Amino acid sequence: MTVPTHTIVQISDTHIVEEGKLLHDKVDTTANLLASFGAVEELGTAKAVVLTGDLADTADAAAYQRLRGHVDEFTERTGLPVLYMMGNHDERAAFRAGLLDAEGTEPYDYSRTIDGLRVIVMDSTVPGHHHGEFSGEQLAWLKNELATPAPAGTVFALHHPPMPSPLPIMEDLGFREPEKLAEVLRGTDVKIVVSGHAHHAAAGVLAGIPVWISGANAYTQDVLAGPDRIRGIVGAACTRIDVYPETATATSVPVGVSDTVYEGSISDMMAMAAEYSH
């Protein structure tokens, strides 16, 4: 059995609101976040958690404080780093003040190496707008960062997916000029590009590198609603990312599911499978 060198968990589009409120009067996004954290703890092998944007629904200070409190409790219990990222629902100054005890309105781009695996987090937001893009300065920073390979390769994370979407609305709200990003990523040690924003899981390719959109931790977009409609439905997800010496995989994980069809040890499952073999 091939074992990953690193496993990280991506939680995207948390859309946390202040205490006592529900998102769209229906969704308890904090409960979804805590369910995701619980799943990470049960997994037991993750090396980090990446929160890929739209952390607070309206960039409200109370929502950021609420999120930070739960993240701090999680990191204290597990010792796992939690990496923050900007999304189009976030606001740079409030984001920095509420989550980082910092100031500033410049893009929040950084690189973190975890046991030899580099995770690059970039801010694809455009203040005052919902679409995403990178400036020339950001792409130059990324090119310089990737010039030196990391021992276990790189996971590259941004909020806006650099790939086409089945949702017509994403034509205006998506990531612009992905070909410029592709030029920088091509031939580097990036094993997978992970993103959020669209509220549905999907996969693609950019510069020969797998691209993944994580399902949202808040709710799900119904991609079969029809070309003239947009429909958000109840259903939360996060993503398990496994990194191997030559590749990386992303697996969508439903959040808050209560019913179990079956459960047992690996040996129990192998015995069950043997019963069905002919």
Q: Which structural class is indicated by helix and strand composition?
A: alpha/beta
Proportion of residues in helical segments: 25-40%
Which parts are unreliable, with pLDDT below 50 for 5 consecutive residues or more?
Answer: none
Rounded mean pLDDT is 94
Beta-strand share of residues: 15-25%
Could you name the CATH homologous superfamily?
Metallo-dependent phosphatases
CATH architecture: 4-Layer Sandwich
The best one-word shape is globular
Q: Please name the CATH topology.
A: Purple Acid Phosphatase, chain A, domain 2
Task: Provide a count of the helices.
Answer: 7
DSSP strand tally: 13
Largest sheet: 6 strands, mixed
How far apart the termini lie comes to: 23 Å
Q: Could you state the order of secondary-structure elements as H and E?
A: EHEHEHEEHEHHEEEEEEEH
Q: Strand order, main sheet: write it out.
A: 4-5-6-7-9-8
User: Rounded to an integer, what's the Rg over CA atoms?
Assistant: 19 Å
Overall structural domain count: 1
Q: So what's the CATH class?
A: Alpha Beta
List the helices and strands and how they pair.
Layout: E1 6-11, H1 29-43, E2 48-51, H2 61-78, E3 82-83, H3 92-100, E4 110-114, E5 117-121, H4 136-146, E6 154-157, H5 170-173, H6 178-185, E7 190-195, E8 202-206, E9 209-213, E10 220-221, E11 232-233, E12 236-243, E13 248-255, H7 266-276
Helix pairs in contact: 1-2, 2-3, 4-6
